[in-house]
Fold this protein.
Amino acid sequence: MAWIRTSLALISFGFGIDSIVSVLGRELGGALNTLRASRILWLGFVALGIFSRLYAAIDHRRQLRCIERNELHYTSRVSPTLVVAHVLAGLGGIAFLSMLIGPGLRQ
């Protein structure tokens, strides 16, 4: 359930990015390249939400099979939460850079 909530929040935030970037573009007097910045962030958040939801479904099915077979043992693997956190940090960096260098990029 947590992954469903998280993936839906990421997708929703991705759709909301367009509005946020448009308002910032108007406030900065059109100096921000709103189309490029919003498209990168929108696609990034929506893609991350979709992929995290797909991974959660696959992992859930795998966990159910392990429970059915009574094969519950710890296996060391890369945490999907850590992967999502790193991707979010990257998207945040892109957002910061697009806002920082945005005034120099005229449409």
